[in-house]
Amino acid sequence: MKKNGYMDDGNITLLAKGVNLKGEIKVEGTVRIDGCLDGDVHTKGEVIVGEDGVVKGTITAGSLISSGRIKATVTAAERVQLFKSAILIGEVHSPVMVMEEGAKFQGVCDMGATVWPEEAPRLPDNVCDINQHRGRPLALIGKESDM
Question: Which residues have a Cβ under 8 Å from the Cβ of 91 and sit 6 or more positions away?
Answer without folding.
Answer: 73, 74, 107, 108, 109, 110
